[in-house]
Design brief:
There is one protein chain. 61% of the residues lie in helices and 0% in strands. The chain is mainly α and 132 residues long.
């Protein structure tokens, strides 16, 4: 006989291999399903979050307006209550506001710069900015 029959015998590891591949396929399908579900959930959440973001932005604008009309003594007294964590949050807020509303780079450090579309590259200098 030209065909060696022992080589065509069912190997003992073939069934666990098939089961492992089936389990891997099910796991991949589950991951794809979860990614699609997450993308759909984010799309729904993103549209509802835009209203929340607008409301939050208007509240921040109102606070900024009140701060600009606050007497200097009251402003300095409020600064004395700011801790280290709040100071870091204020620094990040200042950088975000500089980039978003003034369309300038908040810092000369590369890791603190942002991509600002439709605006020439300029680094904002707080010392040369006029107070109005």
């Amino acid at each position: 006989a030209l065909i060696d029959t022992p080589s065509f015998a069912v190997h003992p590891y073939r069934k666990p291999l098939v089961m492992s591949l089936a389990l891997l396929l099910c796991l991949c399908a589950l991951i794809v399903f979860l990614r699609i579900w997450q993308a759909l959930a984010m799309r729904i959440t993103k549209s509802s979050m835009q209203g929340v973001a607008v409301k939050r932005a208007y509240r921040c604008r109102e606070i900024a307006y009140k701060l600009t009309h606050l007497p200097l003594q009251d402003f300095v007294a409020g600064l004395s209550d700011i801790g280290e964590l709040e100071s870091d949050s204020l620094r990040r807020l200042q950088m975000m506001l500089t980039a978003a509303f003034l369309h300038k780079q908040p810092s000369s450090l590369l890791l603190q710069q942002r991509i600002i579309a439709g605006s020439p590259f300029q680094i904002y200098n707080h010392n040369s900015a006029p107070m109005e």
